[in-house]
Amino acid sequence: MKKLVLFLFLFPLLTYAQNDLLSGVDVPVAKEKVTSAFKALKIVNLESTKVAAKGDLYFVVAHRFGSIQDGFEGFYGLDNANTQIKFIYGLTNGVHVSAARSQLAYDFAVKYALFPQIKEGFPVTITGFNSVSINNTLNESTYPELQFDNRLTYVAQLLISRKFSEKLSLQVAPTFFHENFVENPMQNNTQYAMGIGGRYKFSKRWSLNIDYAAHLNRATNSLYRNPLSIGFDLETGGHVFQMHFTNSQGIDEAGYLARTSGSWNKGDVFFGFNLARVF
Questions:
Q1: Tens digit of pLDDT for each residue in 184-198?
Q2: What is the pLDDT of residues 12-57, one digit of tens each?
Q3: Nearest of 274, 247, 230, 279 to residue 40 by alpha carbon
Q4: Could you give phi then psi for residue 6, rounded to 5 degrees?
Q5: Which of 217, 221, 229 is nearest to 260 (CA)?
Q6: What is the distance between the alpha carbons of residues 245 and 225, in angstroms, rounded to a whole number?
Q7: What is the pLDDT at residue 57?
Q8: Sign of the alpha-carbon dihedral angle for 132, 138, 143, 144
Q9: Of 28, 49, 121, 254, which one has the fewest beta carbons inside 10 Å?
Q10: Pairing relation of β-strands 82-92 and 270-278?
């Protein structure tokens, strides 16, 4: 009986002492990742920081009609379209590879997640992107000494995005690319650009997307321009349908970074869309 009374007397003290000791132990708290800064793998032309999940196979059709400046004679761009067919496969939850073909270029790429944005932690998501494209527009009759490696362009990008809210996400993309062959002798083969883009979700299914790439060392006599693209994303049952206007008919990175020919000021722009199906 005495032992029972002693136990009942000491039990609160023992419990308090145990809680006091445990209070000094740091219990690790799971860091919450910020997801879905962008719903699609591209903003418009610019790659987003989103990476395909492991085992996902994307079939993508990206289409750019001809310039609406063609008027009725070119049926407002319908007669001179460029279509890209692309397959994307998620190797892991942080890496995907892709292969694409259009009238203008073949394109092969890898995209890989580096750092996620952490709620109340790391402020941005960082993703890497590398590609090599084969230029189909170069003609042997114009350049008789043209070799296969002259058609190659290498691209490396660091994609850095931040999701500020459920509605607004922004991204910057410092870019390096190297064209093995340039038609303009005043243009350096090694070139640099800074891409910027963003997404503003204004309803449950719709968002406004804009991206732009400033070429940093383009030759002063170049006929090409910086690509500016404006469009809308429509979320439909887990898929995203993208519709946009852009002054670049090229869809691969080398095409829109190095060889954008359209001009918004002159109405020389192209209507297009990106349509993806995930298996």
A1: 999 999 999 999 999
A2: 444 444 445 445 555 555 689 998 899 999 999 999 999 999 999 9
A3: 274
A4: -65, -40
A5: 229
A6: 15
A7: 96
A8: positive
A9: 28
A10: unpaired
CA distances from 198 to 39, 71, 98, 226 (A): 12, 31, 23, 17
Question: Beta strands 168-179 and 95-101: pairing type?
Answer: unpaired
Which of 5-9, 50-54, 165-169, 249-253 shows the lowest per-residue confidence on average (mean pLDDT)? Answer: 5-9
Give the span between the Cα atoms of 250 and 106, in whole angstroms: 11
Place of tokens 């503003």: 200
Amino acid at 9: F
Tokens (6 digits) for 117:
């944005």
- Quote the CA–CA distance of 161 and 149 in Å, as a whole number: 34
Two tokens at 147? 């070799």
- CB neighbours of 179 closer than 8 A, spacing ≥ 6? 153, 189, 191, 254, 258
> Residues with Cβ < 8 Å from 65, sequence gap 6 or more?
76, 77, 78, 80, 81, 270, 271, 272
* SS3 annotation, the chain: CHHHHHHHHHHHHHHHHHHHHHCCCCCCCCCCECCCCCCCCECCCCECCCCCCCCCEEEEEEEEEEEHHHHHHHHHHCCCCEEEEEEEEEEECCEEEEEEECCCEEEEEEEEEEECCECCCCCCEEEEEEEEEEECCCCCCCCCCCCHHHHEEEEEEEEEEEECCCCEEEEEEEEEEEECCCCCCCCCCEEEEEEEEEEEECCCCEEEEEEEEEECCCCCCCCCCCCEEEEEEEEECCEEEEEEEECCCCCCHHHHHHCCCCECCCCECEEEEEEEEEC
